[in-house]
Amino acid sequence: MPLFFSALLALLLVALSALFLGRWFVVRLATKWCQRKLQAELKIGSFFWIQNVSLKFQQHQQTVEIDSLWISSKLLSHDLPRYVALCFGEVRIRTDLQKVSGLFAPFSQSTGVHQKELSFSPSLLKIFCQLFSVHVDSINIMVLKVATSESLWHIQIRESSFLLDSDEKRLKCEVSLNQINSKVLKSGQLEDTCLAELSLALKLCLEVGISSRQLKSITVGMWTLHAELHEGLFHSQLLRPGPSLAPKPVPCPEVTENWAEPTLPGLYLLQQLPDQVKVKMEITSVVLSMNSQKRHLNWTLKLLHFLYHRDEDQLPLRSFTANSDMAQMSTELLLKDGLLLSQSRQRIVCLNSLKASVQVTTIDLSASVVLNTCIVHYRHQEFAQWLHLLALETQESSSSGFKQRKKRTFPQILAPIIFSTSISNVNVSIQLGDTPPFALGFNSISLDYQHLRPQSIHQRGVLTVDHLCWRVGSDSHIQRAPHPPNMHVWGEALVLDSFTLQGSYNQPLGLSSTQSDTLFLDCTIRGLQVEASDTCAQCLSRILSLMDTQSGKSAVARESSFGESVSLLWKVDLKVEDMNLFTLSALVGASEVRLDTLTVLGSAETSTVGVQGLVLALVKSVTEKMQPCCKAPDIPAPVLSLSMVSITYHSSIRSLEVQCGTGLTLLWSPPDHMYLYQHILATLHCRDLLRATLFPESVPLLALEPPVTASEPKDLLPEPSPPKRLLNLTLEVSTAKLTAFVAEDKFITLAAESVSLTRHGGSLQAYCPELAAGFDGNSIFSFKEVEVQLLPELEEMILHRNPFPVLQTLRNRVWLLSLGSVSVEFPYQYDFSRTLDEAVGVQKWLKGLHRGTHAQASASPAPLPPDLLLKVQHFSWVFLDDVFEVKLRDNYELMKDESKESAKRLQLLDAKVAALRKQHGELLPARKIEELYASLEHKNIEIYIQRSRRLYGNTPMRRALLTWSLAGLELVALADASFHGPERVVEQVQELDPGSPFPAEGIDLVIQWCRMLKCSVKTFLVRIRDYPRYLFEIRDWRLMGRLVGTEQSGQPCSRRRQILHLGLPWGNVAVERNMPPLKFYHDFRSEIFQYTVVWGPCWDPAWTLISQSVDLLTKPSADPSPPLPWWDKSRLLFHGDWHMDIEQANLHQLATEDPYNTTENMHWEWSHLSFHWKPGQFVFKGDLDVNVRTASKYDDCCFLHLPDLCMTLDLQWLCHGNPHDHHSVTLRAPEFLPEVPLGQLHDSYRAFRSENLNLSIKMDLTRHSGTISQPRILLYSSTLRWMQNFWATWTSVTRPICRGKLFNNLKPSKKKLGQHYKQLSYTALFPQLQVHYWASFAQQRGVQIECSQGHVFTRGTQRLIPQAGTVMRRLISDWSVTQMVSDLSQVTVHLMASPTEENADHCLDPLVTKTHLLSLSSLTYQRHSNRTAEEVPTCCRS
User: Do you know which Pfam families this protein is assigned to (predicted)?
Assistant: First the structure.
């Protein structure tokens, strides 16, 4: 037994000795191997146990220390997963990063040597993997000099394990690190600074193919990742690797391949990955801290899951690119519950979930992205320091590799691609600090895209957006709920309720393909709201300034290259519903443009834009936060409304067609114009701001073109570009109504129907069947069959120029205006001048507002204006009568007729009563007779009432007070270079008005024009009321001559101020109006076939009403001077000569007080009349017959026959100054009146106004024209009595018409021309004269006086004597003859009698018996008055 124990002890000692000897031998081999291979020194502290193991690299000063090492088993500890476990205690690693470059060289050299030696049997490897595992309690790694000499990187790993598993095909390696703590420290002068901290739990699983020895799968799991990156990390050199630590270029196919065959970026990296990669990160937290600014950012992520799978065994995707295939693979990335917080715990980024996947099959490549709930709040004030750090780091890291970077070209993908994305609940708000904040959000966006290549490249996609909103303003960063339906929230710059875009693009393959590329787009938008404001422009400008300008250059390059490609056939179908466009201004509120439906259908040949329900409205004050978005018909008080408009453009023929439906309405006013003007200015300012941001260095093209010097040869000059083809335009408007408020209560309305406008080349044509213009609700102007043409030239106008040899211009542009009928109708007592004056003031205000700085006249001469050809078939001008007076006369006529009819009925009743009395005698009761007469009276009343009610049933009521009608009007106005321009117009004025003294300093004209006129009128008719005779009747009137119109520029005192009320915020605007009138200078010649004038005192009441209506057409001058009478006003406005050749002229002077009488009148009849009107003189030449027209057949006779008469009327105007000096008249505004003596009124016309008129009438019959007719006078005793009644009628006193307070007419009565005469002289010269006086036409007895030659002269003066009494009465006219001279020769007097009575023909008996009574060789009569010298004042004779 002792021997057994001794032997056993000996064996144990031998075993222990062998064990220790083996351990020593193994340690010795390991030490030698480390010295030889690793150049490192290996030390083991404990002899019995493996403790305090130290491995030191002398050359690199790196050490690895192991506190303890032991072997355990699953049988001893249930926590161990394997039966044999190699356990390590604490492992400490110390290294220097700057000397680590040569550390891996031995491993790289030895890997190839032992590659064949490390060969295991799969079954043996499987058993080994099932039995063995490695566990480490803790690992401490210290890396010195990470970036600088003062830096330190410390890594601590706790409870790590290493497991292997094998299925004889793959080797699975699983590394589990329960806790990893890492810090990067930098030692400073004062204290150590932590640059970065990291803590996480990691699990790594690798699968390697045993046969191929390639990595097949990687699975990474991370939990509770917490990282802190401090400010010092970004300032240190840790993120900026130096040349020694820079990674050396690895030779790979992606880099070494030929650049002529480009590849997709990242494709090589995907090919190097294992077949399967899984990454899962849970509860991740990253903190960026900036201690100097006391700022930090905290990013937390609940889950990150990445999955990559590649199947090499399946068929790959063939021809992914032109040179490569792609294996089947799938990639998926999932992020959940991400949150980025600032130091104030405010959310910056909030992410619910993000899922992205890519799958490659043998058929196609499909990718999808799904994002749910991403909220971003960017505040530049908090991010400025972080962006500075990141930008500095990015700039330095990118600058180091920028020189090595080459431009990459992407290959063409040949495989089908399917891409889909879905993004929902996204809101991004940005606060940049220097600009107002803004936010962009949407409920959902989905995109489906397909790229197919069957026989051609076919691409199609669908994009859908649900409720996209872009808000700007101070409160835009606050997340809000979606706005209510049909409402606009101020500050929302862009709102899209829904957006759907479908499109496809087809490109034929093959270079020889003759087919064109095709593009089809179909877009539907609902609920589009766009708001333009200064805030929006500032935000856009800020965003564009932050964007890279290189993208714009590349876009331009792509656009230019695309323009050089093949032609494209495209078709676009766009439909927008409920579209609202707003412009917002802090000064003038907002404007709104509403479009119910917008459709766009376009192709390469034709494009059509259709709009349903277009409205422009103003929101003058924004008091609410929301604005209703109503349908177009429901918007109150729109400025512009249109039910439908269609615009079509044909690109091949450059034709544009515009069609407007019914209901085009424009409501305009000066305040609304200012609102629109301010909104347009604000919009243009926003456009300029964005343009300056996009193109900061844009230079006008003219400035870039080098000037052509004289030394350059002419052949090097650029060829002139061909003239651009003009756009053909066609416009059609069904109905249009334009209303312009020129004042608060004054407005002008223009209504048109079926308007068509066409422009082709240089010609323009417009047609409108009916056009009406109203003033203040009264239809004033009405035009029918209106046709307007603008032609480059017209052969008809060339023929019209032939009668004017002085014209220099042979051809000119032409305005051709053709009107079927023109009707002008003024209501009774309507003040047309007020509205017209307000309209002219508004027009001048608009001209000054929009002309701006361009108001100064251009140095270049104005082009020659076009000619005018006006054709009017029928023209009528009507002044409406007072309805009360019309009804009063009609009722009077009815009463007269009814009185006659009632008298007839009374006679019938009287006859019937008489018959009854004869039949019944005294038995007929008197009561019965009284009842019959009472019944008749009652019946008369009923009949009168019935007739009064039916008065206007059959015939309309007369409405016209004055009717002026023209038929067959044709007017030609010719412009010419010989009288175009201010200087030439002034020359024409001096030529046409030589009698007026022209100012030595010249005159400044604001209006000047000169035209050659040619006019023809078939009938010219003027009728007063329904009188049977025309006031004027002219037939076949032709006029030709020259007309000049000028308006002198007034002095500062001759400019009145018109106040225009614009309201807040502009207030009142003063418009300067020129006070000098428009003057006309003429030289006309006209030919008239028939000229008839009818007048009588019985027409004077109606003419008074007409005069009052005419006064309402023109506004009185603002000058407070008494108005000029019509004769002085005509001298002021009209200057020049007028020649008339009249075939037959008639003047009818009515001799009764009944305006409807047509029998009693004095008829002045001219034959072959030649009339000449020049300043101060009227000349009549022709044959004159004066007839007395009466109802009696006996009194109707031609009492005066004057053949070859030359009658001259000389007018001598008695003025304080020169009566022809109209240029010196200076009107003054009320605020510029000079001081006048007390009791005297200011009169700007004082020197020009005529005090009286001296009229000289000369009738010369001594002209010899070869006729045998002689002057004669035929008088009857009844003729003299008729003339006495005629004189009484014409000298009767007229009563005031519609004057006084009752009629709101307190103007002083106008002075009659008959009261203006001061002196009247008459001269008659005749070679022979025959006078017949018959006492009775029935008995034919009388006296005949003959003389051979005679001369008669008489002169009279008029005095106006006031009547006595306090009542204001008319002045009494007192005429007195101051001089009379009569000289007759060879006077013979005969008594004549006829033996027979009146014959049947009512003619004088030619066999009358003459009895000589008296003969005188000479008869002279003279009369002079002593008052002649007193009555003839000194004056200036014209």
Answer: Hobbit
